[in-house]
Write a structure and sequence with these properties.
10 helices, eight-stranded mixed sheet, 243 residues, alpha+beta
Amino acid sequence: MAIFLRTTGISFRLDELIRNTQDRLILISPYLQFNKKVRDNLESLCIQKRDVRIIYRENKLQVQESNWLYSQVGIRTSICSSLHAKCYINENEAIVTSMNLYSFSQQNNDEMGIYVTKQDDPKLYEDISTEVQRLLTLSKEIRVSFEEVDKKAVQKSEKKISEIIKAKSNSKSKLLTTKELSAKTGLSSRKVNSWFTDNKLMYKKDDNWITTKKGKELGGLEKTGQYGKFVIWPEDLAKHLTE
C-alpha cells in the first residue's frame, strides 16, 4: 500500500531510496540542485558502479551542478523538454511527488508525495516503472560539459550590479516586463532573462520567475499572471542590458 509523504518525509525517503539502491537508480526532476547529502550518496553509488540515470528538463544547469555532474562519469543524464513530473525510483522503491530534486524545494516548499514499494504494491510499482521507462525512451541522452568559472568576470559583474543599486537611478523608473525590455533593447527575451539570471537577480523555479534579494534591491517586482509568476524591472535597466 502506498504511503503519503509530506516535505520532510519525502526528503527522508529519497535519501533512503538512493542509499538502498543495489542495481539501478532513476531520478526524474525538471530542475536540479544537489545538496551535500544527495551528492555524497550518488558519488557512493558511482564508486559501487551502480546504474544511475537522471532525467531533467532545463538544458542550462548552474555551473556548480554542471561541473559536479561532469565529474561523475557513472551518472548518465538525459533531457526531456516536456518534463514536469518528479519521480525517484530504484529496483525496489519509488517516490512520486511534487518536489523537484532541488535544495530550495526541499528546505522551503510545502510538498506532497507517495512512497511505493515493489513488495507491498507490485502493480502500482510496475505502473510507475513503465511510465519511467517511457520517459527514458522519450528523453535525449547528453553528456554534461565542464564549465570553467571566470572569477574576474564574476567579480566585474558583481561590482557593476552593486554600482547600479548604489546609484538608485531606477527609483522612479517605469516598470517593464522582460518582453517589453526585449522590445526596447532589441535583444531577444532569452538574452534579457539570461542577463538577470547570470547576474543572480532572479531564477526560475518550476514555471515561476523569482527575484533574489539583490534583484529586489535593484527594483525587481514579482507579479502573478496566467502562466505563473513573472518579474517586472525598472525601465532604466535597459541601458545596462546592452553594455
